Amino acid sequence: MRILGLDPSLRATGWIVIESDKALGWGVIKTKGDLKESLIIIRNEINRIINEFSPNIAVMESVIYHRNVKVAITLGAVRGVILITLYDSGVEVFEVEPTRLKFGSTRYGRASKEQVSYILRNVFSLPEVEDHITDALAAAYYYDQRFKR
Predict the structure, then answer these.
(1) How much of the chain exceeds pLDDT 90, in percent?
(2) Cβ(132)–Cβ(96) under 8 Å?
(3) CA 59 and chain centroid, separation
(4) Do 108 and 116 contact (CB within 8 A), yes or no?
(5) Dist. CA 27–CA 88, nearest whole Å
(6) Neighbour order of strands in the sheet with 92-96
(7) Interval 123-142: pLDDT, tens
(8) How many domains does the chain have?
(9) Tens of pLDDT along 6-28?
(10) pLDDT in tens, 21-67
(11) Beta bridge partners of 5
(12) For position 73, which CATH number holds?
């Protein structure tokens, strides 16, 4: 099963595609400009990733709570574009709470980003990568471990 892990963000959306314990591709969708331009870039890049890797499922954190209302609304727009793009492409979406993602890779729900990154980079033999990529990997890995067939 090919799993697309995503870490939604307006300026730096992390992504990774895994199959078993292999990372097939990863990166960060970087955007500039206004909200509309950034959302279009994110949509186009998600479509490119889907076309290149043909994932069976996409996994990302469930709704994120943020103290800053403007940031929360912007993240909601990013998530909305990602969800619609995935659904339009026929890719099923699975959402997970952030603490479950951390627990899934470290067995500790309040693990630091560094702890999660260290463990997952070793499991997948990845080089040093941006946090956005390891956050996306935590989502993909969680699903892979939970629903292994």
Answers:
(1) 61
(2) no
(3) 6
(4) no
(5) 22
(6) 22-30, 12-19, 2-7, 57-61, 92-96
(7) 888 888 889 999 999 999 99
(8) 1
(9) 999 999 999 999 998 899 999 99
(10) 899 999 999 999 999 999 999 999 999 999 999 999 999 988 776 78
(11) 16, 59
(12) 3.30.420.10
Please tell me the predicted confidence (pLDDT) of residue 112. 74
User: Which positions are catalytic?
Assistant: 7, 61, 132
Residue 107: predicted pLDDT: 64
What residues does 12 pair with on adjacent strands? 30
What would the two tokens of residue 16 be? 């990774």
Structure tokens at 21: 């314990």
Q: Residue 7: CB partners within 8 Å, gap ≥ 6?
A: 13, 14, 15, 60, 61, 132, 133, 135, 136, 139
Q: Which domain holds residue 142?
A: 2-146
Instruction: Spell out the SS3 assignment of the chain.
Output: CEEEEEECCCCEEEEEEEECCEEEEEEEEECCCCHHHHHHHHHHHHHHHHHHHCCCEEEEECCCCCCCHHHHHHHHHHHHHHHHHHHHCCCEEEEECHHHHHHHHHCCCCCCHHHHHHHHHHHCCCCCCCHHHHHHHHHHHHHHHHCCC
Distance spanning both ends of the chain, measured CA to CA: 9
CA distance 146 to 149: 9
